[in-house]
Request: fold
Amino acid sequence: MIEKFVSLFQTEFYMKVWRTAAETWPIWLPLILINLLFHTWFAYKRRVWMREQGSVLLEIKIPKDVLKSPAAMEMVIEGIWEDVVGTLTDVYFEGRVRDWFSLEIVSIGGEVKFFIWGLKKWKSIIETRVYTHYPGAEVFEAEDYALKIVYDPTKMNMFGITTKLVRPDAYPIKTYIDYELDRGNKEQEEIVDPIVPMLEYLGTLKPGEVAGMQILIQGHRKETLQDTRLFSKPDWKEGIKEEIKKIIDEESFFPQKEGQATLTRLTRTQDDTIVAIQRNAGKLAFNTMVRLIYAAPIEIFDKMRGTGMIGSMRQFGSKTLNGIRPDKFMSIDYPWKDFRGQIKRRLQRTHIEAYKRRSFFEVPFRHLYGKPYVLTTEELATIFHFPGATATTPTLTRVPSKRGEAPANLPV
Reply:
């Protein structure tokens, strides 16, 4: 059997391949070594640069009464959009990378909290943006809850996934505008806030359980030599043009009659889809990865928690538009593929470490278990915003009362 296998590589075709490789090694071997050297250099310098920048985790206690629509959070997110890398010297010699952020909704034993993570230099900007649009909120630097999740497979178990979009980036998810949350004249009982199911579910966790939705974002742009790309990569708007053309030319429901305008062949749904795509295209865009995690001691671990978190995100999807769906699970489908559990433990340990570091766009966990997709400020504000009175989760951390200014006539 072994001899037959070896003989497959002794055919005339493979002999030519080996001979060509042996004759041309002075060309391809230096290229491989140079490429390895560059990747090692970039990885080292970027780690040094990121360590020097430092990071901050800001917890936001939301006001007791939030009267603003998610458009306020959209303004906050617009304020942290940044696509500047720096000069080629900054990139290739200093290791500078584009700034990134993490928007997080977390339940610690059932207590639901909002966090924004970023490099330290963004602290005052984030605070100012939040206070400007949510005057009653409280923002303060918090101890990193994620560092307390210690992976020990003998004592705890975890569930984790990365996500992807159902359709191409050009199609938006169902946003707060589709839910008519931008209209301020609706009664509370008429409001349907898509973030509430996630908050309500996170509020059901028991002491000892930790679950979180981590939304990693980085300003989207055309990638060039400043992004260490020899060949440039166009931005997402090229795909928008293609998808609209596809709807008009290939997916129109009604056959075209002679002399009939192309757009008149579209159904109402197709027309609404194009309008939604065009509206979304006018917003600032971010490279995005939404990660979910759930961890608990073995004795109270509930594997259905992960399913519940996935289910509570379905309201962001639409059959005619887009949606967010699971991509990679930190588990093995069939036990015989990993009968000793080593692969599962490696996946889980790596996922937790990447979650703690908020690492996805750069080293050390660049594009770990998935690829980034594009969400705009409108879409991000839909899945991360402060809810109003429709969210009745008793464990949602809020400011107990509205702060007011002291009377001007107080004695000094």
Summary: The first strand starts at residue 55 and ends at 61. Residues 406 and 412 are 12 Å apart (CA to CA). Strands lie at 55-61, 100-108, 111-119, 138-141, 156-165, 210-219, 285-297, 324-329, 373-376.
